[in-house]
Amino acid sequence: MPASGIEVLFEGRNLVRLLGGLWTSLWIALSAMAVSVVLGLPMGVLMTSRHRLVKLVLRIYLEAIRVLPQLVLLFVFYFDLTLVTGVNLSGELAALIVFALWGTAEMGDLVRGAISAIPRHQYQSAAALGLRPTQVQFHVVLPQSARRLLPLAVNLVTRMIKTTSLIVLIGVVEVLKVGQQIIDRNRFDFPDAALWVYATIFLLYFLVCFPISRLAQALERKLDL
Amino acid sequence: MSTIGLATRPRRAAASTLGLVLAAACLIGLAGCAADSDSGPDTSAAGSSPASATTGSSANFRDVAQIQADGTIRIGVFSDKAPFGSVDAQGDYVGYDIEYGNRIGQDLGVEVEYVPVEAASRVSFLETGKVDLILANFTVTAERAEKVDFLKPYMKVALGVASPESAPITDVAQLAGQKIIVVKGTTAETYLASQYPDYDVIKYDQYTEATSALLDGRGDAWVTDNTEALAWTTQNPGFVTGIASLGPADTIAGAVQKGNTDLAAWLNNELVDLGKEDFFHQDYELTLKSVYGDVVSPDELVVEGGQV
């Protein structure tokens, strides 16, 4: 009997399990991104501060997060935190914190870049019109920055979704791990199932990331008017 | 905030101070609220240990009474290493290690919560009390025994030798003068190098290269883990595992956190009791036999009552 292995996908609850794994990846990545946007915006604004110490502290935070691989951060928050302080986080919460820390740092840097790119005369014109500093930020600088920011932020979201494949190492089963479980389970009977399972996972990632990119493009057009 | 150069001097100073505070909050805030939200339902490990207050970080295990009071034992298992631990199409854990785990849960009178672990993170899961017990095809080594407390073994592994049925190798002396296939970095390579340095050994990087070399006759025998050899020869007609245990036998055992003597004692007693009913032979029939076939007697792999 020529077994192509595609039947493995439809066996039992396998498809449901894959979708469940995808949901795990998604809610962690998207929740972390929501936190990152909320915290990253003020961080980015602060990074353009003239205060040396503020800049230094934020710079150290950003570089520290960038230098450390996400996997190390995951292990630190899941295992080391428990060993050192006795605080016992669930794998999901540890993952959420790590992704939020990472996202906030990256988002802050993106915001900083977007704000720095606003020409000086925009500030001066706004001030000449009598706007107060906070008004300049909210009505002139941030709206213009947002447009530059959007594609970069979307890029960050899709990167986060894909990086969730690491969280299995702290015991959180996401879509890729479910796939590997299915492949291993059928290793003896359907050795070729791996191709179909990985193709399905590829499709699932695509189906999630593609609409996000399209949404961003649509928003960009709308903001551009 | 402090970005704007048009602000008056005192206001800018105030804004900067505010900025500093905010920046610090950004850094500390996340870690802080993470610590607060820890006390969830299934994190009893951190608080419930009687020893945790005195010995600080490392002792955060649960003894038998605490596990029974909590009603759930957490067992770390492989989720993608069939036939020892894997997940079936219904999403349930199955395998040789799982049968053992289910029985432990049954005899403790508690539910079993399986936690998927990876080979490299098994020790960490135990050290942090995230699981009470590891049953993940865990080979006993001196190095690991410094970090975790191993129980009595329930399985043993050694090297095995796969060869063609037409020219079977059934004794290690027959390997002299033959082309012997090994995979680099395996125990087979080090064993042959130390014990039989004058044997003709061909080394490959990957398992698939080694098996195809044996299939197309570039080598006369393949020395590898006996489980590997048995599984492969069962699936490849025309080949047999002529030697099913060669070299020093390693044992596979469960492990608990260092110092959890109460749970270790209970589990070791349980293991001896299970030996009386030949539990692991039944487990073998149920989970391993379909993979290893009839070529080998279960006694080559199974350890009953912790007696190797």
**CATH evolutionary superfamily of the largest domain in chain B:** Periplasmic binding protein-like II
First-residue to last-residue Cα separation of chain A: 60 Å
Would you identify the CATH H-level superfamily of chain A? MetI-like
Helical content of chain B, roughly?
Answer: 40-55%
Describe the overall structure.
The complex is a heterodimer of chains A (225) and B (308). With 225 residues, chain A is an all-alpha fold. Chain A has one domain (6-224): Orthogonal Bundle (MetI-like fold). Chain A has helices at residues 14-47, 52-67, 70-85, 91-116, 120-128, 133-163, 175-185, 193-224. Chain B is built from twelve helices and eleven strands. Chain B is elongated. By secondary structure, chain B is α/β, with parallel strands linked by helices.
Quick structural gist:
The complex is a heterodimer of chains A (225) and B (308). Chain A has 225 residues and is mainly alpha-helical. Helix content of chain A is 78%, strand content 0%.
